[in-house]
Amino acid sequence: MASVPTTLQRYIVPGGVLSDTGHLLRERGQRGLEAVVLWVGTVEDDTTATVTHAIRPGQVAYRDAGGGCAVEVPPDALSDVIRTLPSNHFVLVRVHTHPGPAYHSKVDDTNMLIGHEGAISIVVPDFAAAAMELSACSVNQLTHSRGWVELTPAQVRARFEVLA
Known about the structure:
This is JAB domain-containing protein. By secondary structure, this protein is of the alpha/beta class. It has one domain (10-163): Cytidine Deaminase, domain 2 (3-Layer(aba) Sandwich), CATH 3.40.140.10. Helix content is 23%, strand content 34%. Strands 9-8-7-6-2-3-1-10 form an eight-stranded mixed beta sheet. It has a two-stranded antiparallel ribbon with strand order 4-5. The longest helix has 15 residues, at 15-29.
């Protein structure tokens, strides 16, 4: 398989990956900075992917005098990630933090690391201060005809299987 299929509907996520993600995000959040983590994994078939690990790519976090925050992954850092992916592994999901409530902002809409139809972007509230729980996050799917669309809690439960 040469790319992530646009038909993915189910993500299998080991609990350890969720825990690692929270830790990687929280490290930056404790300094008042947003952070990005990428979920990398394998595609099992046209509808199912398995997340194997979380990585924090090189990134630049901004905080202005008014308390506004942003984070971006420079193109060379993303190229480094892609170049070092194991065979048959893909960047499946972008996960990042916000200082307050979880929502997909206008900056998030344009600062895409993944942009294929069906791409998933997860926003974690409060700089990931609490344990990482998908039910507390804003989980969004890219639909080229509509932009980023937030999944309902029921859709998140149906599409993400978190393993113990």
